[in-house]
TrEMBL record:
Keywords: Periplasm, Signal
Name recorded for this polypeptide: Spermidine/putrescine transport system substrate-binding protein
One Pfam family of this chain: SBP_bac_8
SUPFAM superfamilies: Periplasmic binding protein-like II
Organism, scientific name: Shinella fusca
Length: 360
């Protein structure tokens, strides 16, 4: 006990001396973790291994879309881990917002679906540096109320601009999904190749859609409530919307076989530069969300695919078939993949979409 008292007095004296001399004390990473995410992804069922190990979930802060997240991070907001999607990874990396990933600390890095590993500028940059680990993937697809909309009325994505649907339409307040819809509607499947003339044509299509828009949704809750109440009959939505509404017994379906197709995306996690939390907790979280055990819950309850190949292989084949994931090639057929795009093009889309939403 005497030795312990002596030690405490010594430590106290050192701290007091440091304060008196104005000497800076060593900085230590806080034993916390802040995840910057889309609303809904705080669901503990997405990170059970983390909760089991640490006795609870990390702290979460939310964004409505990736441009909002980007601007907030640029202005100095601090978080440790964030959840961007494929089309934003290059922009965030070039802006200096990301910390490289140590793949030796990522237990499931080698089990990511091969299609994602092969994508240029997604998981790694040209020099082999790792930046992004995929988590979920899915579609943005035409979604409709089956009691008010007939399938023959929506054989084409151009239905979103049909005057018969005035004040009955909803699309995301999300530039990527908006221009995915517009690109498909004008016959473009690779948005990185958009010419100036095609960009104008796509933007003009969105201006026509705007005349019909009842709601620019920001998350699944907004849209689901609007569709359940009958406020919205036709939406450009993520798989999650139809999955949750069908579980509630709502007359809602998706239509993947429109003439122009649908959009496919992949989102995942990155480490943020300047994060003040624990690096160890960050890797624990990344390993928890990419754990193969999470795949079944994601597919069945959210309608999305999981990035872990072993996890997807273990999901009940009937559930995979019901959700459209039994045949990956068929899943991505006739699709515009929201691949990383040149930063200049994305900035152009952002500026134009803001004008469109304002009625210009």
């Amino acid at each position: 006990m005497k030795n312990a008292d002596t030690a405490r007095h010594t430590i106290t004296a050192v701290f007091a001396a440091a304060l008196a001399l104005g000497t800076a004390l060593p900085a230590f990473a806080a034993d916390t973790l802040t995840v910057f995410d889309w609303s809904g992804y705080e669901d503990p069922a997405f990170h059970p291994a983390y909760t089991e190990k640490h006795g609870g979930s990390p702290d979460f802060s939310f964004f409505g879309d990736e441009e909002e997240a980007f601007q907030k991070l640029r202005s100095g907001f601090k978080a440790d881990v964030a959840h961007p999607c494929s089309q934003s990874v290059v922009k965030w990396r070039e802006a200096g917002l990301l910390e490289p990933l140590d793949t030796a600390k990522l237990a499931n890095w080698n089990d990511v679906l091969p299609n994602f590993k092969e994508m240029k500028n997604l998981m790694t940059s040209a020099d082999g540096t790792a930046w992004f680990i995929p988590f979920e993937w899915g579609n943005t697809v035409l979604t409709y109320r089956t009691d008010t909309v007939k399938p023959e009325e929506i054989a084409s994505l151009k239905a979103f601009a049909d005057p018969k649907f005035k004040d009955r339409v909803s699309i995301g307040d999300n530039v990527d999904d908006a221009y995915a819809l517009a690109s498909l509607a004008i016959g473009v499947k690779d948005w990185t190749t958009l010419t100036d003339a095609q960009f104008k044509e796509a933007s003009d299509f969105l201006r026509q859609v705007h005349k019909n828009v009842r709601l620019y949704w920001t998350d699944n809750t907004d849209l689901s409530q609007a569709m359940a109440s009958g406020e919205v009959d036709l939406a450009w939505a993520w798989n999650e919307t139809a999955t949750t509404l069908q579980a509630e017994g709502q007359p809602v379906a998706i239509k993947k076989d429109t003439k122009e197709g649908l959009s496919t995306w992949v989102c995942g996690y990155v480490r943020l530069k300047g994060g003040e939390g624990s690096e160890g907790l960050a890797y624990d979280y990344l390993n928890a969300v990419t754990d193969p055990a999470v795949a079944a819950y994601m597919v069945e309850n959210w309608g999305y695919g999981h990035s872990n190949a072993k996890g997807m292989a273990a999901v009940d084949p009937k559930i995979l078939k019901d959700k459209g994931y039994a045949d990956v090639d068929a899943f991505v057929a006739n699709t515009l993949f929201q691949s990383p795009m040149p930063t200049e093009l994305r900035q152009k889309m952002i500026a134009e979409f803001e004008k469109i939403k304002s009625g210009y």
